[in-house]
């Protein structure tokens, strides 16, 4: 087994409230978080949890990662949007064009998400949580493909996407132009070696692929904080 994604982690001002929002939208159950905050566990082939950890910092600027939710009909798309709005989401304008057909929302703490219309060929094989979509270079797509051992399923015009051989969402990066990075990312990946792996050996491997260790004031913790080739933070947990 190779290193795997344990969770997509959101910093939240109210972790429990935000976890309840996403749990209701996705239909996932809340679970005890292994460190602090709140966690949601998937009920399908998603393959990773969603964690919400506390922060006092307010969201500033767009996230470099957002979720794309799929629809199997126009009615399904409308119901997903209506449910999200009832739970506290808002419609936002990020420059999307009406002909694109997707709804762009922000969750109660301003984290962006897209509800994709039916018939989207790129996400045709994916579940409701169709993609973890982000701002990122071709290099970072290659990095995560090598880091996780996931094949590239899209590599065109510097846009890349990878997907686990076991299914689940696609992880996609849109290529240039990239948004400038300002401060610490509000959303990051938690990854870990398999149970029989070695954390420090994995950190060294990730460094050889283009990542680097960073200090964000984490102090004496069991995980290692690193940055991918685009400078986006992620955490390497102890083997599990």
Automatic annotation (TrEMBL):
InterPro entries: Glyas_Bleomycin-R_OHBP_Dase, Glyoxalase_6, VOC_core. SUPFAM superfamilies: Glyoxalase/Bleomycin resistance protein/Dihydroxybiphenyl dioxygenase. Residues 1-118, 125-239 form the VOC domain. One of its GO terms (molecular function) is dioxygenase activity. Pfam families: Glyoxalase_6. Keywords: Dioxygenase, Oxidoreductase. This is Glyoxalase/bleomycin resistance protein/dioxygenase. It comes from Luteipulveratus mongoliensis. The lineage of its organism: Bacteria, Bacillati, Actinomycetota, Actinomycetes, Micrococcales.
């Amino acid at each position: 087994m190779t290193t795997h994604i344990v969770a997509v982690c959101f910093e939240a001002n109210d972790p429990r409230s935000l976890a309840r929002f996403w749990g209701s939208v996705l239909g996932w159950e809340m679970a005890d978080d292994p460190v602090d905050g709140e966690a949601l566990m998937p009920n399908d082939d998603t393959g990773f949890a969603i964690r919400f950890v506390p922060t006092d910092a307010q969201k500033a600027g767009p996230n470099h990662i957002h979720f794309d939710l799929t629809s199997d009909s126009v009615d399904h798309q409308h119901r997903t949007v209506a449910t999200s709005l009832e739970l506290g989401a808002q419609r936002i304008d990020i420059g999307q064009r009406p002909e694109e057909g997707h709804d762009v929302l922000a969750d109660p703490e301003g984290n962006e998400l897209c509800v994709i219309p039916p018939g989207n060929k790129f996400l045709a094989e994916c579940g409701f949580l169709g993609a973890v979509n982000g701002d990122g270079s071709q290099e970072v797509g290659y990095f995560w493909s090598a880091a996780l051992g996931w094949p590239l399923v899209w590599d065109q015009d510097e846009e890349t996407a990878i997907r686990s051989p076991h299914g689940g969402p696609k992880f996609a990066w849109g290529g240039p132009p990239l948004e400038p990075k300002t401060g610490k990312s509000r959303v990051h990946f938690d990854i870990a070696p398999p149970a029989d792996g070695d954390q420090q050996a994995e950190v060294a491997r990730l460094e050889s692929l283009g990542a680097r260790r960073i200090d964000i004031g984490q102090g004496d913790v069991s995980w290692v904080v690193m940055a991918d080739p685009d400078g986006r933070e992620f955490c390497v947990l102890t083997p599990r």
